[in-house]
Amino acid sequence: MKETKQGSGGFLIGMALGTLVGAAIYYFLDDTSPGKKTVKKIGDGAQDAITGLKEIVQDIDGEKDQIAQKTEKIGREIEEKISQAKQEITQEVEKSLDQIEKLQSRGRKFVRFFTKGGRPVNKIS
């Protein structure tokens, strides 16, 4: 690749052109009748845009309150469902524990029936 040496001449030309273009735009907008009309149109458009943005913000604020209320309602409904689920699970666990206790009791009776003195009945002679 070939490297080129660049001086500051291009920069100065760009600065000078930018200054001239900026001055021409300022003169057109500030000192001519069509320029003043253009500035007024830009200002009116900006004011309309600001008014529109303010309305959008107000709409969002109103929706924010509605969303917060809906969120709270959904949170309460979820808490209720969790509470109901806990109660149902607790009831099922208690039923299962009762069944286990019954099976354990039956198992003990069965073991007592087939053992005598801690030894199996068939080995007692």
Q: Estimate the helix proportion, in percent.
A: over 70%
| Main pleated sheet | 2 strands, antiparallel
- Tell me the strand order in the biggest sheet: 1-2
N-C termini distance? 109 Å
Q: Runs with pLDDT <50, length 5+?
A: none
Overview of the molecule:
The protein has 125 residues and is mainly alpha-helical. The protein is 84% helix and 3% strand. It has one domain (19-115). The protein has a two-stranded antiparallel sheet with strand order 1-2. Helix 1 (9-31) crosses helix 2 (33-114). The termini are far apart.
Task: Provide a brief overview of the structure.
This protein has about 120 residues and is mainly α. It is built from 2 helices and 2 strands, in the order ααββ.
Describe the protein's topology.
Blueprint: H1 9-31, H2 33-114, E1 115-116, E2 119-120
Antiparallel strand pairs: 1-2
Defining traits:
two-stranded antiparallel sheet; 3% strand; elongated
